[in-house]
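Exercise 7. Given the encoded structure of a 310-residue chain, write a plausible sequence.
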């Protein structure tokens, strides 16, 4: 398989604090033994990408908002006409988010022959001219596994992520407020701003040091953010709202604490029911689930099969 990846290959190199899923995709493709050329997509002449894609089996555009080639209106069509399958990939929710929904089908990357997103609900993608496939978010293998606990960390629960009412609604704000009332100073909110973020192995260490990781994503059936595989894959004990689609992907009550949206007391009740040994058994099971089903190499092999490139 010869693969052209379009994305931001230098994102982590430019900012060492970042952890880019684009790098995880690149690594996953190489783990499959594919011949990969990872190209910067932002402000690159479309002709350069067309030339690079000649003779490739697949071009996979890893979408980042506002990252576009120069004069790209006919780029994908030219690549397809030359015999290379084109695919677009992003892990956002689109329907129901006003600033994103209006762009569906109206940007060049949507014109790929196959478009994969984490938005898996009952949507009329065809009405926007998009050949869509649901892609539950996976995890990369470079940070897979438990971290080492830091005895200086006194927190008992943590939430990792930002809060935007325009995307997340009120639920996340209520979850964090409940956690502050419940644990007080022993609750951490990491990622609330640009100066309060953790990536790479530091996140593994945090999850090993804190007993419970609180989870939430924008409310939608068959959609969740990559915080599920990114937490379970690091050995974190995750609490997350019950969401249609979780069971079929193996994200059951055996691998994480699930609660009815808004019923935060269920989190504490379930957590207290579990012995330390049971908590460890749950995180072991969650880590194994990610290792066996939800790494980028698994998802990429499936994408290639869907696109007819396997």
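Solution.
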């Amino acid at each position: 398989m010869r693969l052209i990846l379009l994305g931001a290959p230098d994102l982590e190199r430019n900012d060492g604090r970042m952890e880019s899923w684009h790098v995880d995709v690149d690594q996953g493709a190489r783990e499959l033994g594919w011949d990969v050329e990872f190209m910067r997509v932002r402000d690159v002449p479309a002709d350069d990408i067309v030339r690079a894609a000649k003779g490739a089996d697949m071009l996979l555009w890893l979408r980042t908002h506002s990252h576009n080639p120069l004069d790209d209106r006919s780029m994908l069509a030219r690549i397809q006409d030359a015999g290379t399958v084109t695919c677009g990939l992003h892990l956002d929710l689109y329907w129901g988010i006003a600033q994103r929904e209006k762009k569906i089908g109206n940007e060049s990357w949507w014109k790929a022959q196959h478009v994969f997103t984490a938005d898996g609900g009952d949507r009329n993608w065809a009405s926007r001219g998009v050949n869509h496939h649901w892609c539950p978010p996976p995890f990369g293998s470079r940070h897979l596994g438990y971290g080492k606990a830091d005895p200086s960390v006194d927190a008992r629960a943590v939430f990792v992520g930002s809060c935007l009412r325009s995307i997340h609604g009120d639920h996340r704000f209520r979850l964090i407020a409940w956690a502050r009332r419940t644990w007080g100073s022993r609750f951490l909110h990491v990622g609330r701003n640009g100066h309060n973020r953790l990536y790479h192995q530091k996140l593994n260490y945090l999850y090993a040091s804190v007993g419970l990781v609180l989870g939430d994503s924008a409310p939608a059936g068959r959609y969740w953010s990559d915080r599920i595989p990114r937490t379970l894959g690091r050995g974190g004990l995750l609490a997350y709202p019950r969401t249609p689609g979780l069971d079929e992907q193996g994200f059951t009550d055996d691998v994480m604490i699930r609660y009815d949206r808004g019923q935060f007391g269920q989190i504490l009740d379930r957590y207290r029911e579990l012995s330390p040994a049971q908590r460890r058994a749950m995180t072991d099971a969650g880590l194994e689930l990610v290792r066996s089903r939800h790494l980028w190499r698994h998802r990429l092999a499936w994408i290639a099969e869907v696109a007819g490139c396997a």
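Remark. The first helix runs from residue 11 to 14. Students should compare their own answers with the one above.
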